[in-house]
Amino acid sequence: MRVICGLILCWGLLGAVGAWAAGFDVVKASTQLEKGVYRLNAQIEYRLSAPALDALQNGVPLTIELEMEVLKHRPWLWDEKVYSLNQRYRLEYHTLSRQYLVNNLNSGERRGFPTRSGALQFMGEVSNFPLLDQGLLTPGEQYDGGLRVRLDIEALPAPLRLMAYFSDDWRLVSEWYIWPL
Amino acid sequence: MAALIHRFARGQSLLLTMLLLGLLLVILVLMGRATTNSTKFSQMYSWLLLVCTIGLGALAILILYNLVELVRRYRRQVPGTRLTLRLSGIFAVLAIVPVALVYGFSLHFLQRGIDSWFDVQVDRGLEDALELSRTALDLRMREVLKQTLKISDNIAESDSDQISRRLDDLLDLSDASELTLFGWGGQIIATAAVDPSLVLPPPPPPDTVVLQVRQGHNYVGLEPIHDAGFHIRVVVEVPASGGNEERLLQALFPVTDRLSLLADAVQAAFDSYRELIFLRAPLKASFTLTLSLALLLAVLAAFWAAFYTARRMVQPLRELAEGTEAVAAGQFGRQLTRASSDELGFLVESFNQMTRNLAQARDEAQRSQEQVEGQRAYLETVLARLSSGVVTIDQAGRLQTCNAAASQILGVDLQAFIGIESRQIAVAHPVLEDLIEVIGPQLTLTGDWRQEIAWFSGNGRRILMCRGSSLPDAVGLRGGHVIVFDDITHLMQAERNAAWAEVARRLAHEIKNPLTPIQLAAERIRHKYLKQLDEEQGKILDRGTHTIIQQVQAMKDMVDAFNEYARPPRLQLAPLELNEFVTEVLYLYRDYPAGVEIKLDLTREPLQINADKGRLRQLLHNLVKNAIEAIRDGHGSTLWIKTRREHVTGADCAELIVRDDGPGFPSNILASAFEPYVTTKPKGTGLGLAIVKKIVEEHGGWIQLEAPVEGGARIVIRLPFHHEDVASSAAPAVPAVLANTE
Q1: What does pTM read for this prediction?
Q2: ipTM of the assembly?
Q3: Cβ contacts of residue B302 below 8 Å, gap of 6+?
Q4: What CATH number belongs to B386-487?
Q5: Mutation target vs B (from A56, A95, A102, A111; most B CBs, 10 A cutoff)
Q6: Could you report the per-residue pLDDT of B308-355, keeping only the tens digit for each?
Q7: Could you tell me which chain A residue has the CA closest to the CA of B41?
């Protein structure tokens, strides 16, 4: 408990100093074509806000969602969304083993990390994620990939949800990161 | 659809509002369950909240609309709104007070209740339990580490070709579920698993673990299994010996079922407790929110119900009020719908019965009034068609009714004097004074009376035949008298004319016969004895016989004239242009002895009439002669003769006006100037104007003698126009209107 409190205090101090601002960022993202499949490599930085960390330490699981899109260029019109895919992670603290568990909700795979930064780093490194089969795209057209990360407020416990909708601390969402496919 | 929305807005659609209220209630119940972490509804929480807010907003708008509408109607003083407003207020207060009370207490208990969930002892107990679980796990981990170290020692000396079998043996001896030997590079050297069906290669230890082991620290860790549960991973270094390099031994041990279960239970309890503590404030907020929404729903529902009930209760009253107003305004056709079977319904039924009775009574009254009106109109029509004048006078002497003929005969519009006393009528029209004076005494008598009255009207002397009768003082009649009178002037005139004609014929016959012998005898005496007598006697004889002859001749002329007057008409009618005719006749007078000037004023319009030329000439001669004689007698100088076309009520006629500036007619003979032997001249026969009138009447014309204010006399003659179609008939009649205006 003391350790947790200490950690919270530490994070709180950091937040107060202002060297650290809560938010998610897609640092970089790119795709490479490998055997006819576009594979996504991305680096994401998660900076959880103090209330979110507080909730995490108190056994509230946080659901983080990676939203991936493929957009087709259209002259004169807005880009058409041809494909979208969501990858969801659930991050929770396992008190008994004092470790952070990352649950890949798409595959059901679980990983334990002794530190939170380890867990966040694990979630932040997307490598060779199969995004899209090349056959689904029309040759000759120009496509963009888009990536965004956000905290899923709807997955929070109901009492917390209303507050989360109206609080900046809980509105953790990155800008869309767009790159040519 | 629009009508439905309007009905809904007016709060008239009970079913729809009930549905809305029911829906909101269900949503609130679901929200309550979602807050207490029921995962099924938890997913929908946000949506439920949104729908609930929208629903409540709609309800609030509905109520606000109703309230505004009610206040607006109250300001306009629509009947029933005062009561509706008051009832709504009472109901709303009655509903809100208990709801607010319950809300206050609930809120209080909610705060206290949630706080009482958390207890320091429970907190500590759970932490201890968690610690105990950890300790138990630690013991287990220490034990499995020992086992792993033993295995490690055991395989350190084994040959690399036997190592696989050796691992299988050691696996059987230990609790491990899987044993794997890795090279430093991470490559699998050998592996043994309890469940050989596992196809997947065992997961290599993470780099951090490898690093830790390299530094000489063995690794024991509790790690999550792929989908559920935990296993204990132990990684130790296998020392190098006998040509073997240093290797890593990874052993995976299952956590024993019993321990696993207990540890999971403790973990779950601890987690949910921690979460609950953490969520205490939001949970309270959520409960308060749900409770507040429930309160709002209850209050709004109460408001709506208050409006609805009040309106329903007041509706029949309002209809009654409107119905009463309608009855007061005289509309009895209104029937109210009986909505309920209570006292109000009875009242409505009574009202309907009353209006029905009223309507029936009114219809009957109307019917009888129509009958009376019909009778009255009938009588009036009959009276109006009568040529006799009919007048009723009440006991106070006031004029009650009169018909058109009465006004016409008297030459006074009597309709304007209805309800006015006869004396006042006499003041307004002095010509009636004599008449009223004569009739007055008769009205004091009861029973019928009859009197012939000679009356001097504005148009001369009239003879009225009056019959009167007193009226009974019965229902609908207020007594008084009815007077019926006829103008018999013309009748009398005709009788007199007939008498004169008879006298004339007799005279002509009886007098003219002896005249000729008298004349002859006188001439013979003169002829025979004039020569025998001396001068003086002869002179006497001459004068005497001369006088006889002259007087006999005069007598003959008089008898001829009289005969002429009495002679029945033998007209030879032919079309005639009046202007030409007048000019031709007056040509004879162009050299008439000086002192009289004849002025002609003839219209340029041709005036075609149908006339006997000889008779008409006589008429003109008579008129001109009369006028000239009058002018000479009265020191006048001018005779005007004028013709014009005149349009008198529907018919055209030719008008001939002869005017002179002589002495005129005295007023006493003005009315009887056309009668025979009425004359102002010492030498006149008194037949001149009588013959004129006769000729005019023979031609179907109309004649009037007037005394103009500037003096002299004026005679107006109107003769009907000649029409091709009536030319064959004997004498065209004077238009009835002309005859009447005489």
Answers
A1: 0.52
A2: 0.71
A3: B91, B92, B95, B96, B99
A4: 3.30.450.20
A5: A95
A6: 888 888 877 778 888 888 888 888 777 777 767 788 888 888 888 888
A7: A158
